[in-house]
């Protein structure tokens, strides 16, 4: 469990700030303004320290409570733009259509596909069956 004993702000404030920072990808300075609008005077450096200190433990707890996945995966890749640059998106989906994992890569080759598959297996369990398209990289 995350320890908030030495924190000068309530647990709810810290969790809200970390959640907004991680979930929506806003800058700590913008989040500082959001907190001011809610009547809390929190410095952006403090928010950054909260993210560094609490985000890994929150992520670990969320990962441990993750629902069981189906044992049949579908792997695919597509070409998307990220910040105006074309990038390959690898993703794994279970038989129910829930996204299990994804990875962005600059190149589409065997190394990228292998790295993604290792990442997906490490973040989830080893699947019984994998269905994929017939691309050369896979």
TrEMBL record:
Pfam families listed in its UniProt record: DDE_Tnp_IS240
Record has Aminoacyl-tRNA synthetase as a keyword: no
Coiled coil: none
Keywords: DNA recombination, DNA-binding, Transposition
Every DDE domain range: 71-134
InterPro entries: DDE_dom, IS_Transposase, Transpos_IS6
NCBIfam families: transpos_IS6
UniProt cross-references to PANTHER family, sorted A to Z: BLL1675 PROTEIN
Protein name: Transposase
